[in-house]
Amino acid sequence: MTVIIFWICIGLLIQVYVLYPYTLRLKKSKRAATSVETDNYPSLQQLRTRPVSIIISAHNEEATIAEKIKNTLALNYPNMEILIGDDGSTDKTSEIVSKFSEVRLIRKEKNEGKAAMLNDLRKIANGEIFLFSDANTMLENTALEHIAAMFADEKVGCVCGQLLLKDESGANLGKTESVYWKSESELKKLESNFGAVMGSNGALYAIRSKLYSELPTHKTVMDDFYITAKILLKNYHCVFCEKALAFENTSASKYGEFKRKVRIGRANFNFLFSYLQLLSPLHPVRAYMFLSHKLLRWLSPFLLLAVLVCNILLAQEHIFYKAFLAAELLFAIAALFGLRVCNYFLSMNFALFLGFCKSFLREKSGAWERVERN
Fold this sequence. Notes:
Elements (H helix, E strand, L loop, with lengths): L1 H25 L17 H4 L4 E7 L6 H9 L6 E8 L5 H5 L5 E6 L5 H11 L4 E5 L4 E2 L3 H8 L5 E11 L5 H21 L11 E5 L14 H11 L3 E13 L4 H17 L1 H4 L8 H15 L1 H15 L4 H18 L3 H19 L16
Parallel strand pairs: 1-2, 1-4, 2-3, 6-8
Antiparallel strand pairs: 4-7, 5-8, 6-7
Helix pairs in contact: 1-11, 1-12, 9-14, 12-13, 13-14
């Protein structure tokens, strides 16, 4: 039984980190409409008249909010409104935003959390399309028109832009984080061919306003994945727009990035049972994508732990298991001494494990903290 558990866990880990992208390339997509270049849409000028509400939730963003507003105003799109929610900032965020007459500002005295703020902002938004972006994210000026063009397909309910990380520090953390996001973007691009991108990125994504799902506020939630999952469950497509570019700086510290990953892990486990509907056999390709890209990845810490325990028990039975155990120990030592790929992999999985543990704890509020960027 120990041998069986060992190899099943190894197989699942290989599926998550190695095989999944290749299987997406092998399987032919039946969806061509949303994978074509947006420049090929003949009705681009007509699509640009669709009203878009740009929704930004901010908390203590005085360092970047003015630049964010100027960047948003520079978007090449004629019919948009900008809504910014100041969620109980203790700095000059509201004061700065109020200087821009083109922006509608909603201010809360108390920090209630991003989910609560997004729920409030969408109630006053008038757009046919909601575009969500973070306060520290800068967009290329053509990003919105490329995203709007993707909604030419009436089956498309959500469009995710491409996030590019800028590393001005040259630190190993920034380089590794950039590589991670590049691989995530490649996965989204492949999944887009099947209309089932497994989660948008809060830096830049847009939805049809009628498909917005009220975000839960009693627990930490990742709005980008929660909203995307609900749209997929309504049988609309979620696609990736490679030309819609968003830019952010990499994390300023390992500890800040680690805390962010723990929070993400906790949020995902908080609503795991509601996401399990994506495993429905009525949509086998979508179920396969959710299983491989999300569920098994979230469970990776437990698969890794099971492999280690089984490996220790089997080490006396065959030289192969002794060698495998030695390789595991070398990997851990490499991570401990700062080899960035090993360190990032183990810290990401440890953060997921802590997030799982924290999901059982009662939360005092949905308030959020900023993670400093370089």
